[in-house]
UniProtKB/TrEMBL annotation:
The lineage of its organism: Bacteria, Pseudomonadati, Pseudomonadota, Gammaproteobacteria, Aeromonadales. The gene is astE. It comes from Oceanisphaera arctica. Its cofactor is Zn(2+). Belongs to the AspA/AstE family. Succinylglutamate desuccinylase subfamily. This is Succinylglutamate desuccinylase. It is an enzyme of class 3 (hydrolase). Pathway: Amino-acid degradation; L-arginine degradation via AST pathway; L-glutamate and succinate from L-arginine: step 5/5. Signal peptide: none annotated. NCBIfam families: arg_catab_astE, PRK05324.1. It catalyses: N-succinyl-L-glutamate + H2O = L-glutamate + succinate. The keyword Metal-binding applies.
Amino acid sequence: MNGSRLDDFLALSRANPWELAPFQESLPDGSQVQVWDTGVICIEPAVPGNRDLVLSCGIHGNETAPIELCERLLNAILSGRLPCRQRLLFIFGNLAAMNLGVREVEENLNRLFSGAHARGERRNNERERADRLEQYVTRFFQARDGAERLHYDLHTAIRPSAHEKFAIYPFTHGAPYSRRQLAFLCSSGVDTILLAHGPTTTFSYFSAQSFGAHAFTVELGKVMPFGQNDARRFAAMERNLEHLIGEPAWRPPVLDLDQVRVFRVCQEIIKQSEQFCFQFSDSVANFSAFSAGALLAEDGEQQWHVRESEEAVVFPNAGVAKGQRAALMVSAVELTADMLE
């Protein structure tokens, strides 16, 4: 698309990190490419399949591997190398944080959904961005009924992980888990699943709860600077997303439950004050295990210990704001056929 404003959409968005006037262009195959805002681009095929797919990345600005992956997919579509056969919404989330090479500018964008951006008196650009992203996802999913709704919110983690790629399955409020979605994740190299234990203010939970979407927070490895990610480590995910986008009849291989590790949350550690500290090394990896009774963290007089025979830590971060989650403690659980649909 030589001479088009879409020739480098990510660069255009990063040059306008908080706002970009909408515009639209057409592809040779009749697809309409609609830019709704900075970092938000919708592709409407002339004859769409039965999936409405949201791919979001860069909700944390320094999580570069998913940003590069989504940019490759977008460029492949715009150049004609990848036919787009499904309605598709790309979201590059926190562009100002990308420019600074940081997780967030003022506030964690992935704690501001499901209306959290409007609570309290605090106002900032990230809260306004969360509000607009909710509106764009609403606009996208409400454009038609009857389609399968999918949202993969792609991330990388601050620290290494004993299981490099894992996904958080948002709280289902008692509904069964999707066998097909677990099969998609497993065949994409994401073979570890963490079952959320309650409602949250994450982007994936917003789509799941508000629109009945199959939505996931997908962690694809460790945070690295732009240009230092090894795309081969994400090749299975990229290949499967290409299948979803370009082949309406494609289905992932049948799920083998023996190939999936599943964890449930057994306790949540919330930072209450600036006295908060972990009782383990800052370098500990996600899913590192601790034995029963082990002291995990202290905050003034409050202490957290391992309650079960063994628990593993996920997302430990003592630097979060007061009142936010500093870590999750999880334990292995068996996912049985009666829990699936």
